[in-house]
Design goal:
alpha/beta; Aminopeptidase; Immunoglobulin-like; 2 domains; 15 strands; about 30% helix; globular
Length: about 425
Amino acid sequence: EVVGILCLISVAASLDFKYHHAEELEAYLKGIHATYPSLTHLHSIGRSVEGRNLWVLVLGRFPTHHKIGIPEFKYVANMHGDETVGREMLLHLIDFLVTSYGRDPVITRLLNNTRIHIMPTMNPDGFEATKVPDCYYSRGRYNKNGEDLNRNFPDAFENNNASIQPETQAVMNWIKNETFVLSANLHGGALVASYTFDNGNSVTGSLNGYSRSPDDDVFIHLAKTYSFNHASMYKGTGCDNRPTFPEGITNGYSWYQLEGGMQDYNYVWGQCFEITLELSCCKYPPADQLEEFWNDNKVALIEYIKQVHLGVKGQVTDKNGNPIPDAIVEAQGRPHVCPYRTNEHGEYFLLLLPGTYVINATVPGFKSMLKTVEITNNTGNFSALKQDFSFLEVSIRSRAASCPKTPLYQELEQASAAVKPTLHLLVLMTVVLVIFK
């Protein structure tokens, strides 16, 4: 038994720049948790088609559970099994975070004020199936059932009739069970930060070749945060003869339309802002390039996590100070098709850029409360602005119906078919009000 523990600790002590297959990856994560038990929590959120665990390592001062006021952040890599750089970057990020905690004041404050979830591989079967590394397409992209996991989520724009895969279902359950605020998923095959929406229709501006979310300004900021902190992404250089991306960012739809994508699902149904990071022109580059990739991405990976502290957060309570779950809390002028609601602790988190906003808190059946807030950039302080709401006349626990998994934007498009484009926002707000009722 002692030998086993020593082996685990030695695994945690040195992380080489090489590709770690399933057993090595599991041994590494277990070694890290054994070495840093109070700073980490290791659990599997489900299993792949072939029965491999979908491991998540959680890091933070309170790694085992959500703490009020501390936002939840996640990184997911390797959902396409043959896109491998992100998988190794996340292992090195883990190594960097645990070894810097208590030594580096910035990392220490980051981990004290953020709960960080890291999933190095969402498609372990696809990775193991990729026998011959290739810069371009290989069958390892898909899961064992031959499904592309990044086309497998419910879609807000069209009925994609996907047969939900075990890996997808595990991630959907995970999103439902945590209050994720910010996320990124790591891919390969280009060098760019891509943001929501990946799909679209006339309501979101797809006729102009760009699918705009209500939080487009925030998404552009998030994508630029990554690209400008990366060694070269911001230069917008294309791979081979493929298109270049100004400032190293792109709207997903502008690049190419896809349905059933994970980032749109996070934003619409998970209340979590997610971007897609394409980290390498070559999908599965030689292992001797991994150290260079780590040096290119290290600062960007950390700076991006800090953005979870943008904007405003708080609690909605009744006259006795009890939390009110499922209260709707949104900034005026940026309604979401699936209204953003408080969690079981009555908490909300809204990512917003510095500026003046009116925050609207609504408990169904009661009068809305409006509060004007002046938001500054608090990412350096590791805490968003705090703004609580107390409903004195309410002493009930309202249970809202969960948002339907139907293509919500489809209804908006039908409703606005006869309306000029300038009225799209009005229609959007009307439909949101209908959903509220």
